[in-house]
Amino acid sequence: MIYLESRRRKAKANGEGYGIGHKNEPEPLTDEKLPNAFIAILPLIIIGVFNKVFTGLIPQVYGKKFDFESINIPKVAAVDVTKETAIWAVEGALVLGILTVLLFSFTRVKQNFNAGINASIGGALLATLNTASEYGFGGIIALLPGITGSASGGMSIALATMGDKYLEQAEKLGINPEVMHRVASMASGGMDTLPRNGAVITLLAVAGLTHRQSYIDIFAMRLIKTLAVFL
Asked: Which pTM was predicted?
C-alpha cells in the first residue's frame, strides 16, 4: 500500500489522470438498473462451492479409473480419473456458473450475445496464443540453461530436470506432492517478474497498455509480494 500510495501521489503531482487512448475499455455505465449485488456474485459462489463438491464427488462416482467398455464403447483407452478430477470439477462448476447467469439475466445476455461472445472468444484466443507462443519459444531454447520463454515452459523444464530430486526431498520432509507442485506453479507464474512472462504479456494486452507504461509497477509489486512472504 505504501508503494501504491507513493505512485498515486507522484501521478497526481505530475497532473496525470486516467489517461486517454486506452484500448479494450468497457462501455460507460448508463442509468439502467443493475442487478442485485448478491445475484451479481452468486455465479462466483456457485463455481467455488461446486468445484469443491465435484472434486470429492467425481472419484466416488467413477473410481480411480473409468473403463469405456463398461458402457459398451470398446477400443477406447481407460481414463485415469485421479489425473482428470480437478479439470472435470472446474469445468462442471463453470457450466453451473454460466447457467446461473442465464437464469437471472437471460434477457440482458440475449441482447448483447453477439458482442459478448466475440469479446469472450477474442480474450480466450489472446491468452491461449500468448501462452502457446511463449511456451513454444521456451521449448526452442530449452537447451540453454536457465532460459525459457514462459512461466509454464520454465516450470516444465525445471521439473523435468529436477523433479525427481524435489519429490524425494518433499517425501523426506512430509510435504504433499500436490502442495509442492502448487508452490512451483505460484513461483513460476505468479511471482515471475520477467517481462516476457505469459501472464504479464496477457495482462498488458487485455488492459491495452504497454511494457513502457506499466511494467515498472508490475515488477515492483511482484517483488514486494514475494518479499512479504519471508517477513
From this structure: 0.54
